[in-house]
Amino acid sequence: MGTVHAKSLDPLPMHGRDLGVHPDDLIEPPEQEQESKQEILENKDVVVQHVNIEGLGRTKEDLLGYEISDVFHAKSLIDVMKRAHVARLRLLRLGIFKDVEVLIDTSEGTDALPNGLDVTFEVTEIKRLTGSYNTMVGNNEGSMVLGLKLPNMFGRAEKLTFQFSYGTKETSYGLSFFKPQPGFFERNLTLNLYKVTGQFPWSSLKETDRGVSAELNFPLGVTSHTLKWEGVWRELGCLARSASFAVREESGHSLKSAVSHTVSVDSRNSAIFPSRGALFRINQELAGYTGGDASFLKEDFELQLNRRLFWDSVLSASLWGGMLYPIKGQPSCIADRFYLGGPTSVRGFGMYSIGPQSEGDYLGGEAYWAGGLHLYTPLPFRPGKGGFGDLFRTHFFLNAGNLCNLNYGEGPQAHLQKLAECIRWSYGAGIVLRLGNIARLELNYCVPMGVQSGDRICDGVQFGAGIRFL
C-alpha cells in the first residue's frame, strides 16, 4: 500500500523528527500486488474520495469543513500534497490545535477507485486552559506580560483571554473575547474590557483609562479594514508637582465615545526589514456623536515604500501625517493630540519633545507631518551571514517633520504654510537589530538640525526600541 506522511512541503531533513517521519518512510515500498496502482497514482490523475479528521474533542466538525474542503478539488498526487499542506496551515492558524499531521493513503473498500485517495488529518487539540509569560517591546518601552487563555471555548475557534502587563511606562489588564467567522478567519470580532494606567513624563502627565471596545476586522480585495467603537472613561492627573498650569488645567475626568475606521494595504515582504513592497494605512476617528464629552474628527496616515538596490542594500522612504479637528466648539484634549520626536520618529530629538510646550511640558499638536529616507545595508564584511548576522543592518537616515496647532478659520494654504515653518530635521547612522518579526532595536548616532526654542534634543548616540518606526 502506498502511504505518504507529511507535515509540510519543505525539503525533508536528514532526520524525520520535525516532520514526525523518517525520510525512508516517506513512501513505503509497495507490495507486489499494489505496484500497478502506485504507478497510476504517481503518473495519472487522482480523485480524493475521503477526507477524515482524527483526534477531535471539543472542536465542532462544521468549523473544519471550511478549512479542508479544497483538498477534494485536487487532481494529481502533487496537487493533493500541496492542498493538504495549505489545509494544514489553515487548521494551525485557527489557534486551537497544538499539532496537525497529514496522512495520504490509497483508498480501500468496495467503493475504492483505482486512482482514489484518502486524506487524514491527525490533530492534537490545545488544552482548555493555557498560560503564558513573555516580554513585549513597545515604542521605546518594555513590559512583562502574563496571560491566561481559554482557547476554542465553544468549539468554533473562539478565545477568551485575560492579560496583565507591567511596563516601564504603562500598566494594564484586560479581558478580551475573540470570535472568527467560520471559513473566513480573517473576518473576526473582538470584544475588550480593560484598564490602562500610563505615565507620560514628557508632558508631566499620568492617565488612567477604563474602557470597553468592539472591533470588527475584515479584508476587502487587497485591503484590510478595521471598524471599531470605543467607550472610555479617562482620568488625567499630574505626574509631578512641577507640572505646568496647562497640564493641570487638563487634569480631571472625561468620557470619550468614538467610532473609527482603519484601512491598510501592505505588500511588504517583512514588517521590520522589508526589502520590497509598500504599506499604506489611513485611519479616521470620530468622537462625540455617540456620547461622551470629547468631540473631534481625527485623520492620520502612513506611507512606506521599499526598493532593493545592489549588494543586498535597501532604500526605504516613509511619510506620516495627521490632523485633529475639534468639533462642537470644544478644545482638543491633551490625550487626543499628536506627538512627535524621538528614536522612533524624528531621530535626534527627545521622546515626543517637538512642538507646542508650556514650562517644559510638551502639549502635543493638532497637525503634524514627518518623513524619512533610509538606506539599510548588511554589516560590513557580512559577519554571521546566513545566521545571526542577518538580524543586523547598518542604517543611514535622513528624517524631517513638524508638529503644530492650526487656526481652522484660515484656508488650506495657510495650514500648509504653518506646517512648512520651523521644520526639524536630522541625519545620522547606526545599527539596527531585528527582534523576531514584530519589533526592532536601533543604536544611532544622530545630528539634529532645525532645532527650535523649547525642543529637547539628543545630539549624539540615541537608543530606540519599538514596533513602529518612521
Describe the structure.
This protein has two domains: 47-125, Ubiquitin-like (UB roll), CATH 3.10.20; 181-466, Beta Barrel (Porin), CATH 2.40.160. It is built from five helices and 22 strands. The chain has helices spanning 35-43, 61-68, 77-93, 245-250, 412-420; strands at 3-6, 47-54, 97-106, 116-125, 130-138, 141-151, 159-167, 170-181, 184-200, 205-220, 223-238, 252-266, 277-292, 296-308, 314-326, 357-358, 361-362, 367-377, 392-404, 424-435, 439-449, 460-466. A hairpin with a 3-residue loop joins strand 13 and strand 14 (296-308). The termini are far apart. The model is unreliable at 1-33 (pLDDT under 50).
Which percent range fits the helix content? 10-25%
| Integer average pLDDT | 86
Q: Biggest sheet, in brief?
A: 16 strands, antiparallel
How many discrete structural domains?
Answer: 2
Percent strand: over 45%
**CATH top level assignment of the largest domain:** Mainly Beta
Short description:
The protein has 470 residues and is mainly beta. The chain has helices at residues 35-43, 61-68, 77-93, 245-250, 412-420; strands at residues 3-6, 47-54, 97-106, 116-125, 130-138, 141-151, 159-167, 170-181, 184-200, 205-220, 223-238, 252-266, 277-292, 296-308, 314-326, 357-358, 361-362, 367-377, 392-404, 424-435, 439-449, 460-466.
